[in-house]
């Protein structure tokens, strides 16, 4: 039978997957290289590493749960770096990499139990990806040969 702690962890992973899915849906809809599954996996992975970090530190006064969490950031940086490409004079994948980085942070927030913060951050990320896209297009409108990445 599942104990309350395990049920809580399952809830956390499910919430992280859902929030990652929301951001991933936007990227998938735009036809970006990292989409629905990638963003969900990043959010779930970040949440799982964070949960394991927090739970494994119980009763160990010398254990620092931030050590595992900090390595999540390093790992996401590595993945994000692989998405950024320079094609001629055009930079591609920067917004996708930043979105993965932010989604990992959302997953970590869920893993640490900051649910309202994670939900709000997801809404903010979606605002940046949707609404500010139109602002960017407006700014670049009329500029001949304007290259803007990953909008």
Automatic annotation (TrEMBL):
Q: Give the top-rank taxon of the lineage listed in the UniProt record for this protein.
A: Bacteria
Keyword terms, alphabetized: Cell membrane, Membrane, Transmembrane, Transmembrane helix
Q: What is this protein called?
A: MgtC/SapB/SrpB/YhiD N-terminal domain-containing protein
Q: Which family does it belong to?
A: Belongs to the MgtC/SapB family.
Q: How does it sit in the membrane?
A: Multi-pass membrane protein
Q: Which GO terms describe its cellular component?
A: plasma membrane
The residue ranges crossing the membrane are: 6-26, 38-62, 68-86, 117-135
What InterPro entries does the record point to?
MgtC/SapB/SrpB/YhiD_fam, MgtC_SapB_SrpB_YhiD_N
Tell me the compartments it is located in: Cell membrane
Question: Would the keyword Cell membrane be found if you checked this record's keyword annotation?
Answer: yes
Instruction: Tell me where in this chain the MgtC/SapB/SrpB/YhiD N-terminal domain is found.
Output: 13-136
